[in-house]
Amino acid sequence: MLLELFLICTVLLFSIGAGQNHLAPVVDLGYELYQGYYDEKYKINAYKGIRYASPPVGKLRWQVPQPPNQNRTLIIPALEYAPQCPQSLNSPGPHKPGPSGSEDCLFVNVFTPANKTNLPVMIWIHGGGYGQANGGFDPSPQIYTNDNTYIIVTIQYRLGAFGFLSSADLARSGVPNAGLHDMYFSIQWVQEHIHLFGGDPEQVTIGGESAGGGAAMLLGMAYGGADNTALFNGIIATSPFLHSQWEYDSVMPTEYYYRFAEKVGCLTDGSKTNKSIFQCLVSADTVDLQTASDYVSTTAPHGQWAFLPVTDGTFIQERPTVQLLGGGRLNGMRVLSASNLNDGPDFTPQNITTEDDFKQLLSTIYPLLSKENITNILELYNIPQNTSLTLVNSNGMHPPYSTTNSGWAYGWQQAATNLYAEATFACPSYWLSDAYARKRGGKSWHYQFSVPPGQHGLDLYPLLQPVDIPDTGMDEVFRTALQRIWGNFVMSGNPTLSDAQITTEDRGNISAAGSGVWPRWRAEPGYNWMLNVNMTGGTPTTTGFVIGGVEINVTSYLSSSDESKPPLIADFKVAEGSSWEDGRGRRCQLWADLGPWIKE
């Protein structure tokens, strides 16, 4: 046994890379033992690739996750990220046949300040449309910016058809929303085990961006809000992704179920083997399943994924607009929600030039809309004849607004881009803020990330990278302030900056984020206060993006050594969310009213 332990430790030591100075303490989880590494730069103990559930393969496909099997014969090196879950791209692809991950992918990564106890915890849920990405990134810089006062746990969950296949046939033998069940199970894992890493299970915040933010929203709704604060207290949701949450047995998820089964070969296999479609899928080869999942996903409407969360009546009992705006119970007590300046371009076809094109897009992405519905939408998204044909970003408070112009598009193309951004990201963030503001004892804060070019996901860079990275268009003061806003929310439930956090910064204007200056969101038009997080100054630079085969040149700003140019500095302001962008509150109310037709 001593020889075995010596050999294990020797392997671990030789596995540690640069910056990983020595081994972290062994953590005994009861079912397995893990040993991570100590990161000298950030004073963090990092544990990567910790199994939190049994491999969801074979008979465990499309079932709720199960506890890991016991394996205490050796200390497992927690030095590398686990394989990612199989990936499924959004439309129009390109489709990539073959394996893109491993079904054995239910792992967490824990980043914890060394030699500390009873720390608050943030669980980070990655985005990617419920079909892409993974939990393999290091959030140590954010922890370090916040004086190493909390733990971050990043998780992985089943994606694409493996996590979000649904139909009445599947529900008879399996569970819809398997990927959401994975997330829920990982939160339960944190509750049971995080004290072993120095964490306090009574101070847990869940958070994510895009689909990760949408998932955090749905976890706030899980089981009809019956958990309240048993699993977490706070939610951070940036650009929470919500698009047509169909009933589990309705036409769209059922159609994708049969397309998937057909691609795997399970529509015809049953007649040969006496297996049901579901039994055939459970026993199918993983390469066939991964290929089919990606293929079907790329056949969804432009910019979309085929396999998304559904209303299953048990785990997710209502559509979000019903539960969030209808006074339904919610898990957790507070929320910090946000969206980006230009969340829509990556998901919008780049050929919308007329009103007819715009109406055709509406009918494609929301097939249940009636002519009356479309008329009501056009009243709020119409393009005036005198719209400026220029690429210019809105400041949210004065024209031109994002309803007609942005740094990405103008006219009907911008109307389509803004519609998608609002219906899918911005309005869900408003509804989430409304819901927790109305909850008894609940609290909501809201902000918009407005740094040009402001595309979807740009806000993650200043949140997760070191604050002193040069030439990014976001200086150290800006990055530090944004990371501290998140850190304050995780640690105290209040994201506002202290006087000390503001006065120590000698560049830019971040005082609007201060305590007593940035008010809470009130769920009442005229009092829905939000923080507009932006930069000013700098030297303009042009970057080309290719979206749907179309190249778009957009402008961003970088710091300059040329003293004739204004310095690039942080510029935070408080604004009113309902009147923002010429009445976003009215448009979000329209989308809420259209909930039965758009399934939100």
TrEMBL record:
Keyword field: Hydrolase, Signal
PROSITE patterns assigned: CARBOXYLESTERASE_B_1, CARBOXYLESTERASE_B_2
Species of origin: Daldinia eschscholtzii
Family note: Belongs to the type-B carboxylesterase/lipase family.
Protein name according to UniProt: Carboxylic ester hydrolase
Coiled-coil intervals: none
Taxonomy, superkingdom: Eukaryota
Residue intervals of the Carboxylesterase type B domain: 39-521
Signal peptide per UniProt: 1-19
An annotated Gene Ontology molecular function: hydrolase activity
One Pfam family cited in the UniProt record for this chain: COesterase
SUPFAM superfamilies in the record: alpha/beta-Hydrolases (SSF53474)
Enzyme Commission number(s) of this protein: 3.1.1.-
PANTHER family noted in UniProt: CARBOXYLESTERASE (PTHR11559)
